[in-house]
Fold this sequence. Notes:
alpha/beta, flat, Helicase, Ruva Protein, domain 3
Amino acid sequence: MRISGEQLRANLQKSLAPVYLISGDEPLQLGESADEIRLAAKHAGYNTREVISIDSGNEWQQLTDEASSLSIFSDKKLIDLRLPSSKPGNEGSKALISYCQNPAPDTLLLITTGKLDSNSQKSQWFQAIDKIGIFVQVWPLQGIQLLQWLQSRAERRGMQMDGDALKCLAARIEGNLLAAAQEIEKLYILHGKTRINSAMVEDEVADSARFDVFGLNDVLLAGNLNRAINILNNLRAEGIAAPIILWALSREARTLFNIKMELKQGNQTDAVFKKFQVWDKRKALVQQALSRLKSNDLQSILKLSAIADQQIKGQLKGNCWESLFGICLRFAKADQITLQQNSLTNSL
Length: 348
């Protein structure tokens, strides 16, 4: 059964499923959805909790062991399975299918993972979970949904935000819900249960839309073009030199290209990631970019990087910032490139 994050609380009030799978790339919603399930499980008597984090892929036996073991206190058990890569691999797929075919009694399995693509949702392991459990997919919030979320969050603290305040806060936090939650807490501490206007937001809320060069890389790996454009414009407004941005972007593209070549030669992913110093926190982002970008996409980025380098040095006519924007477009594999580029040109 598939439900949205907004439907989860009402669903938990009915009855608990044997398996919950939460997927998404918005960390606050992902974490809070998992917290709601853990709380509901605790209220239902699931007092024992075992956490299994799938890092190297050798941890799947722990799931089988925990499912077959009984608590010495005969408590109901919650197995908290963390799957950062969103791809369980062959061994993980078999373990999940086997578990769903014969769920452990008095046990609730909670799986949290990154965003699952359409191919993953067609896999046998996903179908096995979907058949007996609940799939909760969380999405980054934008537009009216983001404004509604901000208002709801403020109302939990007894505050009302007028329309201009909501729009101002949404612009400041740039879709970062964790930052939004923190800023709403700050507004509550400073003003208490009152009506919040735009002046209060402008005075008190930090601008969370400011990012460094490496933040730009991470956003591009995730394919988030709109946010990348905003970061690039902010970097330029802050006076960050174009060569620094170009160095970071071209280095990322070159690393991705070299990783692809190594993987095509049959080398193990973990070994290749270690060779190119892709550590745990960035593995999911790099994997996402590798799935989206082909070798010729990365070659195109490197060619445009060479053009931008010549423009910066005055060896070639043209605006280097437009070229940097073009690199971002190619990283995100955006459609309607000409339309977007015209939009940037007007802002430069």
